[in-house]
Structure formats: structure tokens, C-alpha cells
Amino acid sequence: MRGVVAVLMLLTSPALAQVSEPDGYQMEHYRSPVPDTLEGGTVVGPEEAHALWVTGSVAFIDVLPRAPKPEGLPEGTIWREKPRHTIPGAIWLPNVGYGAIADQTVAYFRSGLEKVTGGDTAHPVLIFCLEDCWMSWNAAKRALEWGYSEVYWLPEGTDGWAFFDYPTEVVEPEPGG
């Protein structure tokens, strides 16, 4: 009987519950389960993303936030950012996936999108972050709202990509952010 109860608890756990798309943007709890859908976009898994990457015709955009340097570090403290291992050829546009972003961040995101698409809103883009990261969902939704018509979203992000042992490279954030 305990085994049946354990299975029922597992099947009804919040982690397995279906997550619905919010009406607007996700405004908090950015590292939590994400929906299986993106209205207007195409949700892909790591294997599909890899197939798109191999074609070389899709712009890959990493939106993992960048950790700020802690304030109040004692003088002489060495601050080393954690390197970002991402999908080779991807552009890193940190902090563009928050639910509410400043005008400067909007301009930074638009500029990055224009750079990788040549200003062509029909050029396919694939947006990602980490697994269970709303930043990529928000950023993909925003790109769709700005008229990008072929938006792919990789909910598993670089976690799923690395699970399949696909290559990664260290990248620096796109300047201007």
C-alpha cells in the first residue's frame, strides 16, 4: 500500500503539474517550472534545437541573466564572473527575459535581435536560457510581440543541450547591455 501512495504522491506533485501560460509575462519565480507551450511560437527539445543549429540558418539567442558584482566587497577583493557555457554561435543577451524591463534593456534586446537577423523579422530565432527558466519564455514572447514570425523556444535550455552532450563554448555578453 505504501508503494501505491508513493506513486500517487509522485504523480500529483507540483513539479509534474501542467503549467499554464500567463496572460502577460512571468513577473517572479523565474526559476520554476515553465509551460509546455508558447502561443505563436514553436517549442523544441534539445534534439530539434540541435538539428536547427546544424542548418546554420537559425539565430540562437541566450538570455541567461548576468549576476551583478556584489556591492560592498572589501577593497582588493577579486571578483570573477562565472563563465557562461552556451550553444556555439549563440549571442548572449543577459537580463532581457525579466517580466518588466527598462527602456534601455528593451533597446538592447531589439538591437541584439536586429544584429542576428539582419533586421528581418521573418528570420528564424531560437531563444533559450536554462531548464525551468522563465527568462527564455518571456524573451520569446516579447520577440513574437515585436513581430518576429519564426520564434523557437528551447525550454530545457543549455541544461538539456548539455545532457545530450552537444558542444558548448564560453561566450561573453553582447556589448551594450
Q: What can you tell me about this protein's structure?
A:
The protein has 177 residues and is of the alpha/beta class. Helices cover 31% and strands 12% of the residues. The strands form 2 sheets. It has a 5-stranded parallel β-sheet, sandwiched between helices. It is globular, with a radius of gyration of 18 Å. Residues 4-13 have low confidence and may be disordered.
Care to give the gist of this entry?
The protein has five helices and seven strands; from the N terminus they run αβαβββαβαβαβ. The protein is α/β, with parallel strands linked by helices.
| Percent of residues in β-strands | 5-15%
Q: Can you count the beta strands?
A: 7
Q: What's the helix count?
A: 5
Which shape, going by the Cα principal axes?
globular
Order of helices and strands: HEHEEEHEHEHE
**Strand order within the widest beta sheet:** 1-6-5-2-4
Cα Rg: 18 Å
Keywords:
two-stranded antiparallel ribbon; five-stranded parallel sheet; alpha/beta; 177 residues; globular
Helix and strand layout, with pairings?
Elements: H1 2-11, E1 42-43, H2 46-55, E2 59-62, E3 84-86, E4 91-92, H3 103-117, E5 125-128, H4 134-145, E6 151-154, H5 157-163, E7 169-171
Parallel strand pairs: 1-6, 2-4, 2-5, 5-6
Antiparallel strand pairs: 3-7
